[in-house]
């Protein structure tokens, strides 16, 4: 039994043309986190927050999965045990690349959530503060993404997977946002072999057994080939 748990971040979608957050010129250099990615920012100016996510939704809809997304789908298909993909990304590129049952711990751009009644549905490409909830009718609709200060989704399920991991990989994530940044410690406690695949070593690099440095479209297919050879 060699269960694999993979955590991905914005770096895996960078070569599909989607900007990362903390790289030079990234999203957090262009927008203030407290304005567009907190519940308080949304309460102050919902139109601004919707326009930020509307733009990202349009951009994500045009993006194509790259060789790294596709390689992870291949690993899920060909590995004899479970391969769990947990992503911090709100794009749908893992699914477009063929992955199954992706766990979106920070939500998705494709989702709308009513903050009054908790109803969820598929969002329109453009959302506005006046949109009514499709169940209760109140104009309290937000993107179904997890903001700073909010609890990421599916945490029990993720910790459960980590406790059974034999191999753990963090791909394209700076390791600066918790709780995801601490998953490697859960995996180590479970006795997993750990890999970091990133453009450059992240702040958490010392925690990993193996460091594969370079663009995800090169490192991920090679890592998958090597794993499949050893099975
Ligand atoms: N291939 C591999 N890694 C890459 C590539 C690439 N082509 N391009 C960039 N990277 C790496 C960067 O070096 C960086 O370490 O991807 C990482 C991206 O880091 P962040 O921008 O911090 O993104 P992420 O780790 O996903 O952010 C976590 O922060 O703001 C929140 O909710 C948001 O989910 C996001 C979370």
Summarize the structure.
With 231 residues, the chain is of the alpha/beta class.
Topology of this structure?
Blueprint: E1 4-8, H1 11-14, H2 27-30, H3 33-36, H4 39-44, H5 46-62, H6 67-78, E2 83-87, H7 93-96, E3 103-104, E4 107-114, E5 120-122, E6 141-145, H8 155-163, E7 167-171, H9 183-189, E8 193-198, E9 210-213, H10 216-230
Parallel strand pairs: 1-2, 1-7, 2-3, 7-8, 8-9
Antiparallel strand pairs: 4-5, 4-6
Helix pairs in contact: 6-10
Adenosine-5-diphosphoribose binds at residues 9-11, 14-15, 20-23, 26, 88, 106, 172-174, 176-177, 198-200, 202, 215-216.
Helix content: 25-40%
Largest sheet: 6 strands, parallel
The CATH superfamily title of the largest domain: TPP-binding domain
Gap between N and C termini:
11 Å
Write the CATH fold name of the largest domain: Rossmann fold
Large-scale geometry: globular
CATH architecture of the largest domain: 3-Layer(aba) Sandwich
The structure class reads alpha/beta
Proportion of strand residues: 15-25%
Number of domains: 2
Radius of gyration: 18 Å
Bound molecules: adenosine-5-diphosphoribose
Helix and strand sequence: EHHHHHHEHEEEEHEHEEH
Text of the CATH class of the largest domain = Alpha Beta
Number of extended strands: 9
Low-confidence stretches: none
Q: What is the average per-residue confidence, as pLDDT, rounded to a whole number?
A: 96
Side by side, the strands of the main sheet go 3-2-1-7-8-9
Note the total helix count.
10
């Amino acid at each position: 039994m060699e269960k694999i748990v993979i955590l991905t971040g914005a770096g895996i979608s960078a070569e599909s043309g989607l900007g990362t957050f903390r790289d030079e010129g990234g999203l957090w250099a262009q927008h203030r986190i407290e304005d567009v990615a907190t519940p308080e920012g949304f309460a102050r100016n919902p139109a601004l927050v919707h326009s930020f996510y509307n733009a990202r939704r349009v951009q994500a809809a045009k993006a194509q999965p790259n060789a790294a997304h596709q390689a992870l789908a291949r690993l899920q298909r060909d590995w004899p045990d479970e391969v769990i993909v947990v992503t911090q990304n709100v794009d749908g590129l893992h699914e477009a690349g063929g992955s199954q049952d992706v766990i979106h711990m920070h939500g998705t751009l494709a989702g709308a959530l009513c903050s009054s009644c908790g109803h969820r549905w598929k969002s329109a490409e453009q959302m506005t503060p006046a949109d009514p909830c499709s169940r209760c009718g109140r104009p309290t609709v937000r993107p179904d993404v997890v903001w700073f200060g909010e609890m990421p989704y599916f945490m029990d399920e993720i910790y459960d997977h980590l406790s059974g991991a034999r191999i753990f990989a963090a791909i394209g994530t700076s390791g600066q946002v918790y709780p995801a940044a601490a998953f490697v410690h859960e995996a180590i406690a479970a006795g997993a072999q750990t890999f970091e695949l990133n453009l450059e070593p992240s702040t958490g690099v010392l925690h990993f057994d193996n460091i594969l440095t370079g663009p995800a479209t090169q490192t991920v297919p090679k890592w998958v080939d090597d794993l499949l050879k050893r099975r």
